[in-house]
Amino acid sequence: MPYKKLPVLEVDGKPVAEADDVARYLARMYDLMGRNERDALICDELVETLGDLKQDDMGGLRVCSGP
């Protein structure tokens, strides 16, 4: 298991272990990246924004599920 973390996807017999890379690969494989390059750009932007929110580098911005 590369980098000793999940998720891991095996592609052509080789492991891929970065979650965003796995997600983008699967999105391309199953035609989920939009109809054109602009749509794909928006998808990438959303993925990166979610990553930023998870890292808590947004100067105190928090995502919460309750009061």
Automatic annotation (TrEMBL):
GST N-terminal domain sequence ranges: 1-34
Cross-referenced InterPro entries: Glutathione_S-Trfase_N, Thioredoxin-like_sf
Highest rank taxon of the organism: Eukaryota
Record PROSITE patterns: GST_NTER (PS50404)
Xref: Gene3D superfamilies: 1.20.1050.10, Glutaredoxin
The name this protein goes by in its record: Probable glutathione S-transferase 6
Source species of the chain: Bombus bifarius
Species lineage: Eukaryota, Metazoa, Ecdysozoa, Arthropoda, Hexapoda
Gene name of the encoded protein: LOC117214634
